[in-house]
Amino acid sequence: MDEDWEEGSHRLTSPGEPLTSSQAFMRGHGTYIDNEEVISSVAGTVERVNKLISVRAVRSRYNPEVGDLVVGRITEVQPRRWKVDANSRQDAVLMLSSVNLPGGVQRRKLESDELQMRTFFEEGDLLVAEVQAFFADGAMSLHTRSLRYGKLRNGQLVTISPALIRRLKSHFLSLPCGVDLILGLNGYIWVSKHVKQTEQEGEEAFDAEAVYSNKNDDIDDATRLAVSRVSNIIRILAAHFIPLTDTLLLDAYEWAVEQEGDVKELLQADTGDAMIATIAARD
Amino acid sequence: MATASISKAERTYIQSSLQANPPLRADGRSLLDYRTVFLETGVAPLANGSARLNMGKSPQEGGGGTEILAATKLEVEDVETGGGVDGGRLVCTVTCSPSAYPQLSSNALDELQYDLTTVLHQTLAHPALHPCNLGILPRKKAWLLSVDLVVLADAGNALDALFMAARAALWDTKVPRTRPIQYQGRRGGGANEDAMEAEGDPAAGARSAFDTRDMKRDAADFELPDYWDEGEVLDGRDRWPVCVTLNLLPPTHFLDATSSEEGSAPVKLLLTFSFPSNQPTSLQAMRMIGSGELLLAQMKSLLADGEKYARDLFQALEAKLRDEDVRRNVKARGKFAMR
């Protein structure tokens, strides 16, 4: 029974499955003891640390790690900090000291900045950020101190299960159909119009106007259509529980365009199944 | 209304997409398309009628969509001493699960529940829709029909879903058959030697069979005859209304908004129509939610449009409910006979 838990091996288990004897092992998260057996209480992967057996659930909220890229939504403005919903167990915190402010990266934070925090981010705003550290209570602290991070515009949000987003080399994808994707590891995906690298990062100087703007650029109908199509493809892949990769998305997009169907047809079950069957065959 | 928070950039993106030509929505639907609706009746065995409705769930995975559970329960009420009303009454209650609105505080949730309850109750308990078989004994006993709805998840357009679920549950409701009973003092006998007789049995009465003067007044209680089914269907099941919410974003309007679309449309017009068979269509309720104004001319055209959408919705729902009836009665019986 307890032969296959070498460190680093992944074994799937389902609720109610006996894992091992409670004499030899201790129960961790996601398990309980019944009849001197450690039994899994969730579906997930078995993990063992020395004599501690725990099960990490497949379907859970986002478990943050330092360095992860996340997409979040401001829920509250507090003194010197924002609260951010990032699909985690607790709201994340974005300190005023961990955002880029207008007028240079190295500028000191002034009292006037505290008073006009809503001009940077206000309730409901979406942003992309990186997990910087954890607080003592397990809440994550975010930062946006890079020109790639900050407020999100020109697109729409798609929410999927965080388990379906793998750690990739880059989470900023740019599809040839004129659509940019930001894959937040917390399952929030931002699908937007493509912005050129130079425009995005500005000309050397940091353009605060543009970074904290709430105005969308002009977006043509073809781009809007592409954004909707990509969003629907992501939803279908998520519904079939297929982890996202850029090649998969591209295959699926090509397939969807070849079908020449309406965007909404993608959401019908048989079209979705056909798409999954086709792209699964290509791999 | 409770809307999930949405950023300004998202709002303008959604608005400009809706106003583009041709209009485009986040999931590619056209302006008048509803999301897929899943409906099942008879989900609560202890209720007199029940339904579970999901709007916008993805078929492969369990999650997502606006989810409503509706159930009706009949209770006997005393008209003279209790709170009952002669001929029965209907009380509608909406409860919102906190997990459907994690962003709301408990006070805000109470307010939302109260708002939804008011809309549903005022529309469904209207005298024009009152079913005529809710009375048991005139001036003595009547049924109290409670319609309880729970919002388990809200992914937008909860009101249309609530009305649809309420209609399905009421359609499914069976009223137990009752038979009035009277207690009659035997002529010449002591007052404590009462005999219990069924009203419809004239030979057993000590009085003349034609002396029916006191019959009605004497009917003091009722019994529930045992039948093979749970009772007769609630009267007027074709009258229960459907609701369409027109989300107004001048110059257009759209149906079945998702939560983010709800956040981007400033004004909503709620229209509730009833389509009784062999009677003209009637507008049962009308409500404007949000800040903004409408001209009378606009209102008229919206009413005409709304009736058309409501009729389509009504027909689809009617077909599904008849389907469910067949599934639960004819097919289930066939399966039982095969065993």
TrEMBL record, chain A:
Residues 61-132 form the RRP4 S1 domain. One of its GO terms (molecular function) is RNA binding. GO terms for cellular component: cytoplasmic exosome (RNase complex); nuclear exosome (RNase complex). It comes from Fomitopsis schrenkii (Brown rot fungus). InterPro entries: Exosome_cplx_N_dom (IPR025721), Exosome_RNA_bind1/RRP40/RRP4 (IPR026699), KH_dom_type_1 (IPR004088), KH_dom_type_1_sf (IPR036612), NA-bd_OB-fold (IPR012340), S1_RRP4 (IPR048565). Pfam families: ECR1_N, KH_6, S1_RRP4. The lineage of its organism: Eukaryota, Fungi, Dikarya, Basidiomycota, Agaricomycotina. This is Uncharacterized protein. Residues 1-23 are annotated as: Disordered. Keywords: Exosome, Nucleus, RNA-binding, rRNA processing. GO terms for biological process: CUT catabolic process; exonucleolytic trimming to generate mature 3'-end of 5.8S rRNA from tricistronic rRNA transcript (SSU-rRNA, 5.8S rRNA, LSU-rRNA); nuclear mRNA surveillance; nuclear polyadenylation-dependent rRNA catabolic process; poly(A)-dependent snoRNA 3'-end processing; TRAMP-dependent tRNA surveillance pathway; U4 snRNA 3'-end processing.
UniProtKB/TrEMBL annotation, chain B:
It is found in: Cytoplasm; Nucleus, Nucleolus. Residues 34-176 form the Exoribonuclease phosphorolytic domain. InterPro entries: ExoRNase_PH_dom1, ExoRNase_PH_dom2_sf, Exosome_comp_Rrp42_subfam, PNPase/RNase_PH_dom_sf, Ribosomal_Su5_D2-typ_SF. Keywords: Cytoplasm, Exosome. PANTHER family: EXOSOME COMPLEX COMPONENT RRP42, EXOSOME COMPLEX EXONUCLEASE RIBOSOMAL RNA PROCESSING PROTEIN. GO terms for molecular function: mRNA 3'-UTR AU-rich region binding. It holds the Pfam family RNase_PH. This is Ribosomal RNA-processing protein 42. GO terms for cellular component: cytoplasmic exosome (RNase complex); nuclear exosome (RNase complex); nucleolus. GO terms for biological process: exonucleolytic trimming to generate mature 3'-end of 5.8S rRNA from tricistronic rRNA transcript (SSU-rRNA, 5.8S rRNA, LSU-rRNA); nuclear mRNA surveillance; nuclear polyadenylation-dependent rRNA catabolic process; rRNA catabolic process; TRAMP-dependent tRNA surveillance pathway; U1 snRNA 3'-end processing; U4 snRNA 3'-end processing; U5 snRNA 3'-end processing. Belongs to the RNase PH family. It comes from Fomitopsis schrenkii.
